[in-house]
């Protein structure tokens, strides 16, 4: 018997039950094992296991398997010659297995029919003489006939070559359990394997010999060439042969030989799904206690996954972080959790590294621009990328001069600099300003951005009191917690400005949070209080729902001239 060979993705056993398709009786059944469902009870916080498709609660746990998440499913499959695989796949569309990330065509490992034994296929008019008797002579002959077409006509040349040192070591470990250990090591990184199961018994032999005759049994015409497995839909696993759809039965009757054997066979398979196959939510649902809401979302900042775990998740935070890391490699290399709300002027977050490496420095790519970020020292929010692009693409014009009062590391300022005339960017955090300057150079936009590191009120006063600045047309105040409180700086702003420079009142885009039933009206009232005047025609835009009942709002309005020339009501810094 040829020893089983392995490919990187699919693992088979060589045992199968070939079923010739000539004169099949109605009483013959495919004795496939029924699917076993798990005994776990349903709860309101969990969804019921699906009746079909892959599920941890539907699968059968293989005995003595090292992977606790391994689940086996019984299937039926068609073994067909490799050249006929693609046409049959199109012909049987709708009858094949349709599971996520599982191919419905499985390749037998190193199955080349008689070629795997070093024998040539029979041909009535061979174009080349028979292969030499020894493997060394065959290898030398094939090497001499190598040409510009490569080894296209010699698919077994690599198999006939000298084995690698690793292969020799594996053979040396035979007999002491080394092969089994090596197989498990290879299976560790797989998502699934397909195994042909079921051995012929004497009863089976006698039963089929009575149908097709002594000489026709087990001839196996498929062994003359490479074959493939077409995995049928799981609903066909326990059906009788006569209960299969007509399309499948027509394929089974195709190319019946004179001796009663068929080129196509119906066989039994076992599909085993491993830990790498299951999505993150299913793994967490199996690991966490009943009644706990499964955390499924997180923010991605470069190679960092940023979680906001609930209090009920904290006892299992390490476990949750490891699953997030496993299911999002290699993109995610670090998993952190925010331990406290932002309560400082620099808008830095208190983060705890739960899994992966400890580095919080990363590179973020947004809208084709690159940003260096230290998540432990500066503020970054990837969920505002759509809002930033809305301002740049829909609001800003090529002739605009933008003033970003709370720029951070520059995601909006640098993105706007690609389009507008000039940008003034400010942040009170010196570390954020340092990264802003790096990102300007990194994206080659340092000539269109001027950077400041000061309080926002002092920054606005400096811009409007300077004689060497461009007239500002767009002002962005993206500090939702406190931005509305800084609007008082624009009251009487023209009193300190240089004459002749302010021809157009700037459009202000101020952000804020609101938990009111009417968040737009609530935020508009706060804007009027801060400016000391009623602002007409305020455009409100709901950015996102940050929490149940809590909206992030962007209010856009042109600064009223009556406010710009009014008496200031704050103490200048």
TrEMBL record:
<dbReference type="Pfam" id="PF02475">
    <property type="entry name" value="TRM5-TYW2_MTfase"/>
</dbReference>
<dbReference type="InterPro" id="IPR056744">
    <property type="entry name" value="TRM5/TYW2-like_N"/>
</dbReference>
<feature type="compositionally biased region" description="Basic and acidic residues">
    <location>
        <begin position="173"/>
        <end position="189"/>
    </location>
</feature>
<dbReference type="InterPro" id="IPR025792">
    <property type="entry name" value="tRNA_Gua_MeTrfase_euk"/>
</dbReference>
<dbReference type="InterPro" id="IPR029063">
    <property type="entry name" value="SAM-dependent_MTases_sf"/>
</dbReference>
<keyword id="KW-0819">tRNA processing</keyword>
<keyword id="KW-0963">Cytoplasm</keyword>
<dbReference type="Pfam" id="PF25133">
    <property type="entry name" value="TYW2_N_2"/>
</dbReference>
<feature type="domain" description="SAM-dependent methyltransferase TRM5/TYW2-type">
    <location>
        <begin position="298"/>
        <end position="561"/>
    </location>
</feature>
<keyword id="KW-0496">Mitochondrion</keyword>
<feature type="binding site">
    <location>
        <position position="388"/>
    </location>
    <ligand>
        <name>S-adenosyl-L-methionine</name>
    </ligand>
</feature>
<dbReference type="GO" id="GO:0005634">
    <property type="term" value="C:nucleus"/>
</dbReference>
<feature type="compositionally biased region" description="Low complexity">
    <location>
        <begin position="35"/>
        <end position="50"/>
    </location>
</feature>
<dbReference type="InterPro" id="IPR056743">
    <property type="entry name" value="TRM5-TYW2-like_MTfase"/>
</dbReference>
<dbReference type="GO" id="GO:0005759">
    <property type="term" value="C:mitochondrial matrix"/>
</dbReference>
<feature type="binding site">
    <location>
        <begin position="427"/>
        <end position="428"/>
    </location>
    <ligand>
        <name>S-adenosyl-L-methionine</name>
    </ligand>
</feature>
<feature type="binding site">
    <location>
        <position position="478"/>
    </location>
    <ligand>
        <name>S-adenosyl-L-methionine</name>
    </ligand>
</feature>
<feature type="region of interest" description="Disordered">
    <location>
        <begin position="162"/>
        <end position="189"/>
    </location>
</feature>
<dbReference type="GO" id="GO:0070901">
    <property type="term" value="P:mitochondrial tRNA methylation"/>
</dbReference>
<protein>
    <recommendedName>
        <fullName>tRNA (guanine(37)-N1)-methyltransferase</fullName>
        <ecNumber>2.1.1.228</ecNumber>
    </recommendedName>
</protein>
<dbReference type="InterPro" id="IPR030382">
    <property type="entry name" value="MeTrfase_TRM5/TYW2"/>
</dbReference>
<keyword id="KW-0808">Transferase</keyword>
<feature type="binding site">
    <location>
        <begin position="455"/>
        <end position="456"/>
    </location>
    <ligand>
        <name>S-adenosyl-L-methionine</name>
    </ligand>
</feature>
<dbReference type="GO" id="GO:0002939">
    <property type="term" value="P:tRNA N1-guanine methylation"/>
</dbReference>
<dbReference type="GO" id="GO:0052906">
    <property type="term" value="F:tRNA (guanine(37)-N1)-methyltransferase activity"/>
</dbReference>
<comment type="function">
    <text>Specifically methylates the N1 position of guanosine-37 in various cytoplasmic and mitochondrial tRNAs. Methylation is not dependent on the nature of the nucleoside 5' of the target nucleoside. This is the first step in the biosynthesis of wybutosine (yW), a modified base adjacent to the anticodon of tRNAs and required for accurate decoding.</text>
</comment>
<keyword id="KW-0539">Nucleus</keyword>
<comment type="similarity">
    <text>Belongs to the TRM5 / TYW2 family.</text>
</comment>
<feature type="region of interest" description="Disordered">
    <location>
        <begin position="35"/>
        <end position="68"/>
    </location>
</feature>
<keyword id="KW-0489">Methyltransferase</keyword>
<comment type="similarity">
    <text>Belongs to the class I-like SAM-binding methyltransferase superfamily. TRM5/TYW2 family.</text>
</comment>
<comment type="subunit">
    <text>Monomer.</text>
</comment>
<keyword id="KW-0949">S-adenosyl-L-methionine</keyword>
